[in-house]
Design a protein that fits this description.
Helix content is about 40%, strand content about 15%. It contains five helices and five strands; from the N terminus they run E-H-E-H-E-H-E-H-E-H. The protein has one domain: Response regulator (Rossmann fold, 3-Layer(aba) Sandwich). It is an alpha/beta fold. It has a five-stranded parallel sheet. Strand 3, helix 3 and strand 4 form a beta-alpha-beta unit. Helix 1 crosses helix 5.
């Protein structure tokens, strides 16, 4: 039997983080959510002390990633995750305010699975997160190798 998927949420805005988690829960997803408010903390958790990501071998992770973080770029996190032998199969959902077509293309080239632009309107944002929760409830996530 496979282990349940852990959602790793990298979001520096506490309000957005609460909204994301609340709407994921409303969608019926009860998986563990491990939140990080900085890129450094997230990358340390994901890649571990040796920088390889081996600490998560056998775990199923889904990464929810904001690109605009105070200490490092979400693009750098995405690149490092996808370069990791152990984490490269983990789905990455980019959830950010940036809607630049070059940045979107770059994220897909680096291996993100879904790119969602945060609407400025609260209701639209909440609706996007509810849909994301439904996505989480049906996706099958491979375990780290």
């Amino acid at each position: 039997m496979s282990k349940p998927v852990t959602i790793v949420m990298v979001e520096d805005d506490e309000g957005h983080a609460r909204l994301i988690e609340r709407n994921i829960r409303r969608s019926g997803v009860n998986n563990d959510i491990v939140p990080f408010g900085s890129g450094t903390a997230a990358i340390n958790y994901l890649l571990g002390s040796d920088g390889s990501g081996m600490d998560h071998k056998g775990e199923a992770l889904l990464i929810l990633l904001d690109l605009n973080l105070p200490d490092m770029s979400g693009i750098d996190i995405l690149r490092r995750v996808k370069e990791s032998r152990y984490l490269k199969c983990a789905p990455v959902v980019v959830l950010t305010t940036a809607d630049d077509s070059h940045e979107i293309k770059r994220c897909y080239e680096l291996g993100c699975n879904v790119y969602i632009t945060k609407p400025v309107n609260y209701e639209s944002f909440a609706n996007a997160i509810r849909q994301l929760g439904l996505f989480f409830s049906v996706i099958q996530v491979p375990a780290a190798r």
